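Question (not urgent): is this output format expected?
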Amino acid sequence: MARPNKNVEDNIVNSIIGEGSEFTGEFKINGLLRIDGKFRGTIETDGKVLIGQSGMAVTDIKARLVVVGGFVKGNIFATERVIFLSSGEINGNIITPSIIMEDGVKFEGNCTINKSQNKQQI
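Got this back:
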């Protein structure tokens, strides 16, 4: 998939699960998914997944970029990067070529930094 202007595309929210909302199912989208409510299921995108500070997700995530400021129980497979904000909490495994963790993150699981990974492997 051609990515003519990745930075602009990263800021366009395609789907949102707002605070106070609950969703169960399977998300397959292009672009950005933001979760501020509760989500249970699977997520697959070639874009970005953002779990907001009030967000809670029981999920396996396959994405290019994942940012966690809330709670995630499940595995994260990112082709570019995973970013954990200081308010983030994860209980699961991570496979990514790059990770950033702010001070204060709660993490229980395993992390594999795989610099040679590409989209076809996940």
